[in-house]
Amino acid sequence: MVLPLYDDNPFRLPVKPVVTWLLILANVLVFLIEIAGSDNGTEAIFSAFGVTPAAMTGATSPPVYTLVTYMFLHAGVAHIFSNMIFLWVFGDDVEEALGRGRFLLFYLLCGILGGLTFVASDPTFGGPLIGASGAISGVIIAYAMWRPCAKVTVLVTVIPLRISAFWVVGLFALTQFWNLESAGKSDVAYWCHLGGMLAGAVLFPLMKRPGIRLFECVLEPHYPLPVSAALVEREPGPWG
What we know:
Layout: E1 2-6, H1 18-36, H2 39-49, H3 53-56, H4 66-69, H5 77-98, H6 100-121, H7 133-146, E2 151-156, E3 159-164, H8 165-178, H9 190-207, H10 216-219, H11 227-230
Antiparallel strand pairs: 1-2, 2-3
């Protein structure tokens, strides 16, 4: 298991990632409401506010609002913790690249399209889809499109490593594709993750703020420095 821990200190950013923090807070508050009730009450919340493909594709009017509400529901501590740590690490940078209002819209659209992808993958499924992972999958892809060379500290089993973001995101993406075949036998909504990833890849270039260059550190040409310039101490760049 690869779990990201941090990349930059978000409290030192010139523009604080308020929307990212509020999304994390909203998810945590909803989860506290879930666990405060009985098991039957929690199941009722999941049924009412989760995305149920059979209901979305039924003859009656589908509960469209669940395409938003399902993102704020989680099945347990491990579920919400893994989602929120990914949002904590990658969300602040994407919010900076998009701006607060567009980041919130981007997040919700990735979650909605992830939910619709899950519905399309199994229209007769009768269980509710819950979790923020569809939206966060879009955020992860957007991060890789902007800062693929950024160093991210990750926990590999119990070993902390500092590696480039494209390795972290690439491994995440490969895991989702690898597990698509077994998606129907798993509790993990891999099709939702895929839909969120594709949504993020399409929407981020369209919604990013002017001046934000995609894959900047990869496309930037590297030339050998003259000897005189090489001897001058330089401040570290944003990628390392």
